Amino acid sequence: MRAKRPFGLKRPKIRQSWNKYNLYNLSRAEPPLVNVRTFFQQKWTAKAISRAYHGETVKEKLWQRMFRRRLRAVVPMDPHQLARSDGYENAEGRGSGLEHHPDKQPRPFPKTPYVNMTFAPLERRLDTAIFRAMFASSTRQARQFVVHGDVKVNGKKMIYPGYLLNPGDMFQVEPERVLFATGASKGARERRAGRKARQKQKASATDQDGNSSSETPAPASDSAPAPETESPPDPRESAQSLLNQAKSLLNSSSSTSSLSGKRKQDLRAFQRLLKKTLSRTQLFPQQATTLTDSLDAQLQELTQKLNLTPSTLTPSHDTSSQPNDEAVDSSNQGINSSLTPENSKVLRRALEEARDNPIDVTKAYATPWRPRPYMSAFAFIPRYLEVHHKICSAVYLRHPVARPGLGEVPTPFGNDTNSLAFNWYLRRR
Q1: How far is CA 234 from CA 28, 278, 321, 354, in A?
Q2: 419, 356, 412, 399: which is closest to 167 by C-alpha?
Q3: 34: closest CA among 45, 50, 48?
Q4: Omega cis (within 30) before 110
Q5: Dihedral (C-alpha) 337, 343, 347, 352: value to the nearest 10 degrees?
Q6: Extended beta strands in 252-392, E state
Q7: Regarding predicted confidence, which is higher, 194 or 397?
Q8: Average confidence (pLDDT) over 249-269
Q9: pLDDT at residue 55 greater than cutoff 50
Q10: Cβ 299 vs Cβ 313: under 8 Å
C-alpha cells in the first residue's frame, strides 16, 4: 500500500527520490537500535527501513518471489594474491608459517560486501533503471512515465514498470519528459505567462478554423496562379530578437548570481552599448539575409550588421568574410571601437545559450532550462548502466555484482542493516 506521507519527519524513511525532505531525512539517518531489541525485532526493523527505499512500489509478496539466496559477486584474479591466500582472504599463510616483517605490514585486503546485493533483483526493473539513469526524479515518477507510454525498450513502447531488463537492453525516455523531471519548476510569473501564451495559441487556432470554414472555393482557371514570393525577413528584427534573448539570459538570476558587482556593472554597460549600436546602425534592404541556425553564421552576420571586429567574435579559422564598411555610418566607429574582446566573449556565450537553451513560456518546466535544486546529492550513475543524456537513452550492460570493497547496488544502509534484512528473508523462505 502506498504511504500517505512518504517524506514524514517524525519517523523518517529514506525513499528513492530527489525530494528535499528526503535529502534531509537522509542527512539525519541513524542506524537502528540493537541493544534493547531482540534479534527478531532487529531483523524486522532492518527489513522495514530497507524496503522503504528498495522497491517501495513493489508488493511484498512479489518481492519475496523475486528474492534470491544466491548473491552475485566477482573475485579479482590476482595470481600473487591467490598464491599467498589460496583464494580465500582469511587463509593467508595457513599451514606455511608465513610471517610478515614488523616494519612491512601487508596492506589489508578489502572485504566483499555480499549483503549489499540483497535487493539486486529490483535493479532489473524498468522503473528503477530509469531512476538510476537520472531520467526521473523518483521511482514513482519513472513508473508514471512508463505507464503513460513515454518509454521505449529496444525501440518498442513498454507500458509495464515491472519489466525485467536483460543485459544489452536499451531503454529510452522522451526528452521532454526528462527535461520536465530533472529541470527546475516554473515560478508563479512563468506559469502565468505560459497560461496567457496557451490562451493566445488557442484563440488563434479557433480564428484560423473559422476563417477556413467561411472561405468559399475559388473557381478553377486555365492559367496556374503565380506562386507567392515571401519577403525576406528584416535582419534588424532578427538581430534585435536575438539580442533580447541574450539580454534576458545575462539578466537572469541563475547567470549573474556568481558574478561580482564590478562584473555586473560591465554587463549592464555592455547591454546599453549594444542597444545604442542597434539604434544608430542603418541597415539597407539589399543587405537583408536570414540568420542561420549555425552559431558561427549568426556571429558573422551580427558582425556585418554592427561593424564589429570579426576576430573578436568568430573563431580564428573563419576570417574569410569582412564587414561592409561602406554600408555603415561613420558615426558608429567610436561605439564599435569601445567593444572589448571580453564583452565579445560574453556576447558569444549569450548567443550560444540563446540558441541551445531558448526561453519558451509554453514549456512545462522553467526556461532557460536549469537543473532542479538538491539534485547534486543524487547525481551518480551505477556501473551496470551506460547512459547517453543527449538522447535520453541508456543500456543495461549487465547485472550488478559485488566486488572487494564495493557493492554495485546503490544503497544508503550499511552492512549491518542489509545483513539483518537478508536474514529476515532467509527466515521467511
Answers
A1: 60, 13, 21, 19
A2: 399
A3: 45
A4: no
A5: 140
A6: 385-388
A7: 397
A8: 59
A9: yes
A10: yes
Cell numbers representing residue 331 in the block: 558615426
Q: What mean pLDDT comes out for the span 8-30? A: 89
Structure confidence at residue 34 (pLDDT) = 79
Beta-carbon count within 10 A of 161 CB: 21
Which three three-digit cell numbers place residue 68?
534470491
Cell numbers found for residue 37? 531489541
- Give the residue from 283, 193, 300 showing the smallest Cα distance to 237: 283
Bigger pLDDT: 330 vs 121 = 121
Grid coordinates representing 135 are 531520467
Residues whose CB is less than 8 angstroms from the CB of residue 406 and which lie 6 or more positions away in sequence, other chains included: 110, 113
| Residue 73 DSSP label | B
Residues in the chain: 429
User: Residue 135 gets which letter from DSSP?
Assistant: S
Beta strand 156-157 with 151-153 is: antiparallel
Asked if 410 and 380 touch (Cβ cutoff 8 Å), the reply is yes
Pick from 101-115, 120-134, 250-264, 310-324: least confident: 310-324
Find, among 8, 21, 131, 23, the residue nearest to 376 by Cα: 23
pLDDT, tens digit (0-9, with 9 covering 90-100), for 172-207:
999 999 999 999 888 888 888 888 888 887 888 787
Give me the pLDDT at residue 311, please.
Answer: 45
- Which position has the higher pLDDT, 276 or 280? 276
* CA–CA distance, 160 with 134 (Å, rounded to integer): 19
The CA distance from 243 to 302, in Å, is 10
Report residue 172 as a C-alpha cell: 529510452
The percent of residues in the chain predicted with pLDDT above 90, rounded, is 37
Peptide bond preceding 368 in cis form (omega within 30 of 0)? yes
The answer to whether 421 touches 43, Cβ cutoff 8 Å, is yes
CA separation (Å) from 348 to 115, 295, 300, 318? 53, 9, 11, 15
DSSP label of 13: -
pTM higher than 0.70 for the full model? no
